[in-house]
UniProtKB/TrEMBL annotation:
Keywords: Carbohydrate metabolism, Hydrolase, Magnesium, Metal-binding. Gene3D superfamilies: Glycoside hydrolase/deacetylase. It holds the Pfam family YdjC. InterPro entries: Glyco_hydro/deAcase_b/a-brl (IPR011330), YdjC-like (IPR006879). CDD domains: YdjC_TTHB029_like (cd10802). Signal peptide: none annotated. It comes from the Bacteria. Its cofactor is Mg(2+). It comes from Arenibacter arenosicollis. The lineage of its organism: Bacteria, Pseudomonadati, Bacteroidota, Flavobacteriia, Flavobacteriales. This is Polysaccharide deacetylase family protein.
Length: 288
């Protein structure tokens, strides 16, 4: 059985409601970068992570280097889910052929990664992604996994763990996310996991909007380490083109994420409920 982070060691009580509002997918686009930066500076977002293989990596890497006070992880990437907007590995695709399609781009779906990706090539590519981030001056606080592909199989999860140990960084693990990719029961005694992970859903976005759902989430948070995963971006022409035929986690969704978590009313609700912000930088101190 995996264990939860030792939050009392960090000075918190067992009754504290701790929350990390974490922005995924920085580097994906100019829109994603701009919204993420503004959410960090003006909103309630406490952590973000960067997709190294994406075209806008250099822009967000420069921000992270110049603003080391912000919690920043590496969003380890093995898939490219977009219809027309494509990117591939950091390494030449000839070195990691099991990770790419016939055009040299990452596979679109997780199931393709599960079926085709060779663990040794996965580790080789992900080390290259981390090293590129380090060489760009980023000082990462953790590792996490785009679309949670590294939770798909025992072999991929082993690669994830190995990278965390090698770079002395916490890895984002959750039994809920493992269940979501069909791999619940693969946690080990040495794994540190997040108590509760919260993500918006497409049905709510279409009906009442994500703001109502997120308000309910915040009102219902319980003691322990909670993470809300968001994907802030602006619903502009660039992001609409990235998200063609992909409304789930699409351009409209990402604008809702940005709007809610930069709204002063959200900050007021966090204060009212005495919800305490926490970052991966703090959790790093629990790694021996």
């Amino acid at each position: 059985m995996a264990y939860h982070y030792d939050l009392e060691r960090l000075g918190y009580s067992k009754n504290d409601i701790l929350l990390m509002i974490h922005a995924d997918d920085a580097g994906l686009s100019c829109s994603e970068n701009a919204a993420t930066i503004e959410a960090l500076k003006k909103g309630t977002v406490t952590s973000f992570s960067i997709m190294v293989p994406c075209p806008w990596f250099g822009d967000i890497a420069n921000f992270a280097k110049q603003h080391p006070q912000y919690d920043c992880g590496i969003h380890l990437t093995l898939t490219c889910e977009w219809k027309h907007y494509k990117f591939g590995p950091v390494l030449p695709y000839s070195e990691v052929p099991s990770l790419v399609d016939e055009r040299g781009f990452f596979h679109t779906k997780r199931e393709q990664v599960k079926k085709l990706a060779k663990p040794q090539e996965v580790k080789k590519e992900l080390k290259a992604q981390i090293d590129r981030a380090l060489n760009a001056g980023i000082k990462p606080t953790h590792l996490d996994s785009h679309m949670y592909t590294l939770g798909l199989t025992k072999e991929l999860l082993d690669v994830y763990r190995e990278l965390g140990k090698e770079y002395k960084l916490p890895i984002f693990l959750s039994d809920e996310l493992l269940e979501g990719v069909g791999n619940l029961g693969s946690l080990q005694e040495s794994d540190s996991i997040v108590h509760k992970v919260h993500i918006g859903n497409f049905k709510a976005m279409q009906s009442t909007g994500l703001g109502e759902l997120y308000t309910q989430m915040l009102n219902n948070l319980t003691a322990g380490l909670n993470v809300i995963l968001i994907h802030p971006a602006f619903d502009n022409m660039e992001m609409k083109q990235v998200c063609v035929d992909h409304p789930n986690f699409g351009s409209e969704w990402r604008q809702m994420d940005f709007d809610f978590f930069t709204d002063p009313n959200t900050a007021a609700l966090l204060e009212e409920r005495n919800i305490k912000p926490i970052t991966w930088r703090e959790l790093q101190r629990t790694i021996h």
